[in-house]
């Protein structure tokens, strides 16, 4: 009929027939019988025990020496030169004290031997600490005003880098001697390469901890992206007790050797009841000495083995219990 509207057949929304569209792909659906469950759990348990034993043997060979020094008489005495500074727990000139502490190696420590400083009761993980920095300024770009504290000196000059993280930069320093012979602490390559390349910019710091009235910790040596101690400090710790790498001693330390640290004790932890310590440690493919790690594997292995034993029990005696239960219900019905 002329002029009549043409009608078109509706487009089909039916998917093409295939094993995929009809959810008919081949699949394996193993039944988790007690026997199969027992095999899987025992296999996982054996694997956990094997890995745990390997980690335990490695961790047990690692050695760690720790010596607290902030409470040593030679370190604490004279840290606050005047009674006014002692009362406020503040050191105006920040000179600190020079002191020595001695450790004795209880066993052989094969090179490389890592040197750390350890701080306690210092909350780098606090929200106010973590947020108080300007990432743009830290990378050498124009400041975006992200710092909430320590932005300017008492005279109004801009501080770069700003914020409490940079302001609190740890500034104790260490020299070490083994059996009276001076030993070098190699502080090269202690920071993450990604931090030096992407987090820190190539520029000289300005007014950072140079003003006595607003000074916190230490000053940056050289440009911001070349001071690896500063880069290490700016990688915030997760816990209130933490260690940060100072450097590496590339020499073996024998059992019974005397290790003497000469410390420039400048960092004020007395005001917040913090603690400072020097740490010597050896590392391996699992990191430092940590016996909790293998203990977790042993625990997991024990749990899996226990479940496997339950599976074996059900496989052997399950039919008996099932038949007794069926007979009991049949009698009741």
TrEMBL record:
Record Pfam families: CDC50 (PF03381)
Q: Where in the cell is it found?
A: Membrane
Q: What is its main location?
A: membrane
InterPro entries in the record: CDC50/LEM3_fam
Has the keyword Methyltransferase been applied to this entry? Answer: no
- Record-annotated membrane-spanning stretches: 40-59, 291-317
Give membrane topology per the record.
Answer: Multi-pass membrane protein
Any one GO cellular component localisation term in the record: endoplasmic reticulum
| Keywords, comma-separated and alphabetical | Membrane, Transmembrane, Transmembrane helix
Query: What family is this?
Result: Belongs to the CDC50/LEM3 family.
Q: Write the protein's name.
A: ALA-interacting subunit
What is the organism of origin for this protein?
Answer: Ostreococcus lucimarinus (strain CCE9901)
């Amino acid at each position: 009929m002329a002029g009549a509207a043409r009608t078109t057949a509706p487009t089909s929304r039916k998917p093409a027939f295939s094993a995929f569209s009809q959810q008919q792909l081949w699949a394996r659906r193993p039944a988790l019988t007690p026997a199969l469950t027992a095999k899987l759990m025992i296999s996982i348990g054996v694997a956990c025990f094997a890995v745990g034993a390997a980690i335990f043997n490695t961790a047990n060979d690692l050695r760690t020496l720790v010596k607290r020094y902030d409470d040593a008489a030679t370190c604490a005495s004279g840290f606050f030169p005047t009674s006014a500074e002692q009362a406020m727990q503040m050191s105006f000139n920040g000179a600190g004290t020079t002191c020595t502490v001695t450790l004795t190696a209880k066993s052989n420590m094969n090179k490389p031997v890592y040197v750390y400083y350890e701080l306690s009761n210092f909350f780098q993980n606090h929200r106010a600490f973590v947020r108080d920095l300007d990432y743009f300024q830290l990378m050498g770009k124009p400041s975006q005003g992200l710092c909430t504290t320590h932005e300017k000196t008492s005279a109004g000059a801009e501080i770069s880098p700003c914020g409490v993280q940079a302001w609190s930069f740890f500034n104790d320093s260490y020299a070490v001697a083994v059996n009276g012979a001076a030993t070098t602490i190699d502080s090269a390559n202690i920071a993450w390469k990604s931090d030096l390349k992407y987090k820190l910019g190539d520029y000289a710091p300005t007014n950072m901890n140079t003003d006595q009235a607003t000074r916190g910790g230490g000053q940056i040596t050289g440009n911001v992206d070349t001071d690896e101690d500063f880069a290490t400090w700016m990688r915030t710790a997760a816990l209130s007790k933490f260690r940060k790498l100072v450097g590496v001693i590339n020499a073996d330390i024998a059992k019974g050797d005397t290790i003497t640290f000469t410390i420039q004790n400048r960092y004020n932890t007395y005001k917040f009841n913090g603690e400072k310590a020097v740490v010597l440690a050896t590392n391996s493919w699992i990191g430092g000495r940590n016996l909790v790690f293998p203990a977790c594997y042993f625990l997991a292995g024990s749990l899996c083995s226990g479940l496997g034993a339950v599976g074996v029990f059900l496989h052997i005696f399950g039919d008996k219990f099932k038949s007794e239960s069926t007979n009991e219900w049949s009698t009741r019905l």
